[in-house]
Structures are given as C-alpha cells and as structure tokens.
Amino acid sequence: MEKKKVAYIYDPAFNTFDYGSEHPMKPQRIGMTHELIESYQLLPKLQVYKSPSMEINELLEFHDEKYLQFLQKVNPENEEQFSKEMEIYNPEEDCPIFKGLFEYSCLQAGSSKLGAKLLNDKEVEIAINWSGGYHHARKSQASGFCFVNDIVLAIQELLKHHTRVLYIDIDIHHGDGVETAFFSSNRVMTCSFHKYEDDWWPYTGKVSRIGTGKGENYSVNVPLKDNIDDEQYIYIFKKTMKEVIDRFQPNAIVMQCGCDTLAGDIIGDFNLTLEGPAECVRFIRQYNLPLLVLGGGGYTPKNVARCWTYLTSLLIDGKKLEKELPENIDRDIYGPNNLLYIDKYNRENKNSFEELDNIYTEIHNHLKNIEIVTSVENLIVSTKKQLKIK
User: Fold this and answer.
1) Which of these ranges, 14-28, 88-102, 113-127, 162-176, has the smallest mean pLDDT?
2) Comparing C-alpha atoms, which of 6, 2, 1, 3 is closest to residue 291?
3) Which one in 22, 151, 188, 363 has a CA-CA gap of 20 to 30 Å to 389?
4) Radius of gyration of the chain from its Cα atoms, rounded to whole angstroms
5) What is the model's pTM?
6) Looking at the keywords, is Hydrolase present (predicted)?
7) Distance (Å, rounded) from C-alpha 71 to C-alpha 212?
C-alpha cells in the first residue's frame, strides 16, 4: 500500500482523567496507545497535532444548551445538588460524574472536529483521534460512558464540504447515538456492526431498523451473536460495505474502531484477533476517500493499545508491525508473552455463514431502494448551512 498523509491528534491530559477505580472505562488507554505508537517509531511518519478543546458554541451545533450547562457545573463534590438534573440528563449509572468531566469531553470533541477540518482543508488524507468515538451520547443526555457525541459533531463539520458522509461503527455495541442523530437524513449513512440480543445493551440495532423519512434505508444494522471470529466478521463486513459504498457513493468516511470486539475484552463477547478490525480498516482505506478514524469501546487496556497501534501503522502505509513488542515497553503490563498480536479463545461461535448471508440479503433489499443523486448542484454544499438533526 502507498504511504498516506495521516494526522494523529493526541493530548497527554487524557491520562489525568478517571471514571473511577471500579469503572471499566479507562482513559489511560489513550496514553498507553501513544506510548506504544512512539515505541514502534510511528510518530515521525505522522503529522502530530495537540488536541484542541471544543468551545461551548461549537458543542451547541448538536447538544442542548441546558444539558451543556449541567455538564459544566456538576462535579463529584456538588453532585447531590443536581439530583433533578441527573434524572433528566444522566439517568444511567454507567456515566459517573468525575473530576474534569467537561474538560475531558471538550478535548475529545475538539480532537474529532480538528480531524474533520484537516480533511475538509485537504491537509491530510486520513485523520486519527483514538480519544474519540463516543457514539452513545444523545443531544441532551449522557449514555453508555459517553457525555458528548464527538462523532456527530465531526460529521456535521464534514458535511460542510462533503455531500455524503458514511459512518462505519465496528464497536461491539450498537452505534445508537450517531444513528439517532441522522436517522432522517439522506446525507449520512450509518452502518453499525454489533452484538444484538434482547438482553444486550443498548437493546437496539435490529437489521430492520433502517431510518425514517428522507433517511429511510440510510441506516444499516448488522446484528451479530457471541464469539464471532475473524473469518466471519471480515466476510460480512466486506460484503456489506462493498454494497453500501457502491450504493451510497460517499465523499468522506468516519470509522469508529471500538475494540471491545477483541478476544479477552472484559465486557465484549466477540472473539476477534487484531486481524479482524485490521482487515476492516485495510478494506476501507483502499477506497482512497477522506477518512476520519476514531476510537470507541475497549476495556482491556493493554489490548486496546495493541489494536490501535497496529491500526495506526496500517493507516500510514499498510505495513504490519514486528510481532515482538519493543524492548522499552513495560513488560509487566503486556506480559506474559510480550507479543503485539493476540490469539482468539476456544469458544463456541454462535454465528453461522447462513445467518450472515440472510442478514446481508435483508440489507441488500433495503439498499437497492436508494436513489443516488449525482447532479452538480447537489455536490456544492454551503459552509454556512445549519443542519437540523435530532
């Protein structure tokens, strides 16, 4: 693969935030990823940018003002004073109020928007923000460890210069927040590959959930079962994404690379090695479209760092990394074998190729209803146009 101009957006401040010792979300995984990227000597191949903090007026392009005021004011010391607001804006126990919460969210969102701007200005071909990808946050509500939806804000920025934006989500959880935001839009197609069962949070993501109004058939959902492996995952991903891209003809792509799909994740129940997400990224990279790559879930930090470092290398020039971890890496963290790559577990795969083909057939039947608009006037997008989304 040819080398591409790749932006990498990072701030060491992410290491200072803490959801709590018992919470599975560990912002320190961002710093671990950075250290591994640096140890593999990838930084000189990247255009490195410091994460900017998003301003309140930028957050208002998607989020509700009263919700943002709540996030600005609440902290662990005064949380009890906001009991009524907590019921409205943060009803789930999985989004704890921690010190620096608003600063953390602004850095995430600012980083993703910067990536979108760099793509809009054609400064780079690919932009990476591993601190982003918080796909559950709603317009006025925290959800699923997510307070601000950096993805929606970045897509809005891309839409100022691109007629059609494709959003791809390979996190184990359904990308419900992004899907809901663009559910009635025909300018954004959302495509989520996720675990779906009646008792699996967020309890959404059936293949029959396809969008509404102008957005009908522009939401694609690929529901999967426990312990899917690389072979099956790559099979359904490539088959679906080829159809999606051929039909939708996007001008830019946003890809959320949550790695709670990996074998050994403390929350996820898939059985992928690094080659699962890696092959998905390779496949999308080959389309040579402006590409914003974001993080997401992933709750075994040492494997998150392994995965995102490997994906960073692939995005630069398609090259694999040395199997042995660099000598300057903390062996106590990555032991006992000190290898980059991980093995899948010996578990019963609940998926079958027949079931995957049935899912694809249903998706195909929805996608064939899409009419592609290619007139010149529709390729010109006003940068001043305000997007009305849910």
Assistant:
1) 88-102
2) 6
3) 363
4) 20
5) 0.95
6) yes
7) 31
Q: Is 94 annotated as a binding residue?
A: yes
* CA distances to 182, 188, 194, 308 from 253, in Å: 15, 10, 19, 18
Q: Which residues pair with 166 in a beta bridge?
A: 189, 253
Whether the CB-CB separation of 170 and 256 falls below 8 Å is answered with yes
What is the amino acid identity at position 98? F
**Does 286 reside within a domain?**
yes
Q: What is the pLDDT of residues 319-343, one digit of tens each?
A: 999 999 998 888 889 978 889 999 9
What mean pLDDT comes out for the span 236-257? 98
Report the number of distinct structural domains present in the chain.
1
Residues labelled as active-site residues: 136
Give percent of the chain with pLDDT exceeding 70: 95
Between the CA of residue 368 and those of 166, 361, 362, 363, what are the distances in Å? 17, 11, 10, 9
226 is known to lie in a ligand binding site: no
Indicate whether 314 belongs to any domain. yes
Q: Does some domain include residue 386? A: no
The reported pLDDT for the residue numbered 329 is 87
140-178: pLDDT as tens digits = 999 999 999 999 999 999 999 999 999 999 999 999 999
- Note the pLDDT tens digit of each residue in 352-390: 999 999 999 999 999 999 976 554 334 434 333 334 444
Q: Is 144 annotated as a binding residue?
A: yes
In-domain check, residue 388: no
Q: Is 213 annotated as contributing to ligand binding?
A: no
Q: Is 171 annotated as a binding residue?
A: yes
Q: What is the pLDDT of residue 388?
A: 42
Dihedral of alpha carbons 197, 199, 200, 206, sign: positive
Domain that holds residue 315: 6-379
